[in-house]
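Kindly go through the following sequence and its backbone structure tokens. Advise at your convenience whether the structure tokens fit the sequence:

___
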Amino acid sequence: MSPLPPLVGLETARLDWTTNEAGQASPLSTRFDDVYFSRHEGRAETEHVFLTGNDLPRRFAGWQADRPFVIGETGFGTGLNLLCAWACFDAHASSDARLHLVSTERYPLSRDELERALSAWPDLARRAGCLIRQWPEPVAGVHRLWLDKRVTLDLHFGDAAERLALLEGRVDAWFLDGFAPSKNPEMWRPELFAAMAARSRPGASFATFTCAGVVKRGLAEAGFSWRKVPGIGRKREMLAGDIASPPADTRRERAPWFTPPPPRPTRHVAVIGAGIAGASAAASLARRGVAVTLIDRFDRAELGTTHLQGALYVKLAVETNLQSRAYLAGLLYSRRWLAHLDPQQALWRPSGVLQLALSEKDQARQASFLANHPLPESVVSRLDAESASLAAGIRVEAPALDYPNAAWVKPLELCAHLARTPGVGFRRGEVTELVGGEAGWTLTLAGGERIEADQVVVATASEAARFDQTAALPLQPVRGQVSQLALPEGAPALGRVICAGGYVPPAADGVLNFGATYAPGDTDPAEREEDHAANLAELERGLPHFVAALRQAGAGLSPQQLTGRVGVRAASPDKSPYCGPVPDTEAWQEDYAALAKDATRVTHIPGRHHQGLWISAAHGSRGLASAPLCAELIASRICDEPLPLEWPLVDHLHPGRRVIRDLIRGQHPAS
């Protein structure tokens, strides 16, 4: 597996602003001493070089594929190229066509400077506003943005060549952009052109403003054919071309079992389970025009008012690992996703989260984490006890990590909202059997009813391994009980979600939620008084002054006076979710049996899967941070799109990883 670049915050662009004769300001990079776009004809240049150079008006008009048209770009800059391509797509493509843009950027602009740069084109203001509102934090990695129902943008923050080498997806047309080769030679290097070629579909085109020799040689060596074509304005010539036969993807030669299954025609998907994993998967698929039947034993819309709140936050490892990378990407995605899905904040609040360090060991761990991960303070920072108290709105006795963009969510109401996504039909029932065939899948319900679907997503938490095809995936049920307290008038208010051994969000609708217990292997749904006592003890351990203030206000803080809710989560042995195609375990054991004797004896057979069967499970207590991004990953794979995570993270989440581990260790898979 190729190592991922460090998980860090990126240095943002350094700009100087110049004004033309018409009074329009345009940005210049002081780092590269080059402009982002021409002061006089920047938009016309973009349209001529990248849109006309790739023949996009004609190609958009004729696009009939079920998958989206994919544009790859080296150097997002101000986003002008994106906005022009989006406008061109809207003008020429059919109403059911979709556009997917993948763009790299090493030095992203700040949100304010992005808005200032794009203000030069008022007719693009609506599109620019969609981009600006979702503009991500400058953190290395992939950031998926929903621009509108038909247009998706994946921003890959980091070095262009590195990011494209990590891209899981294929491109139809390239915008080979960036500061001039003489100004930024580090970008225009052989590794970039090789990564472009490897991520291209057969016949993928490219266009670029430059005719520099290093570019022509690099493109040719990577397999692109190029030609000079007329430029625009003072650029008399530019380059355009294509690649007829891209190189084979060799990244999984050492792990062929993770080779993804080929795409298959899909009109209807059945999603089993209407919790956060299933409901978000159903919504992601429906957004792409796929008809979805969402199946569950009960309808969350009938639950009424539950007052239940969940915390959107993560606990990251001191040393960078794949699990932490996946969870941080999920946290950042969920935050943008919620803001886009529910801008009125009826289902969530961006309260931020404080993670208290109650012991010297916890404090040392947090300090080491920050030393290893220089992330922006807008993502995470360390507060001393005094500053943490100000953020919390209540006195705390310990320093903390502050995640200012984290949140709390009403999970059951969110699931009901997702289940109402246009294109999702809800069916109440229990699936007892799955039978796959060449034409798709047949699902049998407990009453004997059958549902036919092209593909199936299993998202039933601890029950996800109940089917014959999924039985080999080890899943552990984990019972958790949350306590709820109706607050009296005058009770103190929290300003953040507070996490230590448990969690407590700011009260919603006059009810305080806190907990939760953690009981592996326990599936008892009954509420327990001793669990309320444990939750109270944990709350007082972390926030003694808050509990004292609650008592002073007359709150009924005894286990007998509390109500609560019980849920059974699911966890994998390595505590990472299962997200992806379901492996044919018996076939893997046969194909890769040599691993049991020698872990280096790799049989180069692509992994065999139950075609059209997917799973999103084992999200544990961090499902709000992982399930929505996993939903996008599965929907993107089903719909043959670029994925919202780097390929090593996709492989890390693969449901078959445990099968390979057990083979190497000579263990039998769990049943």
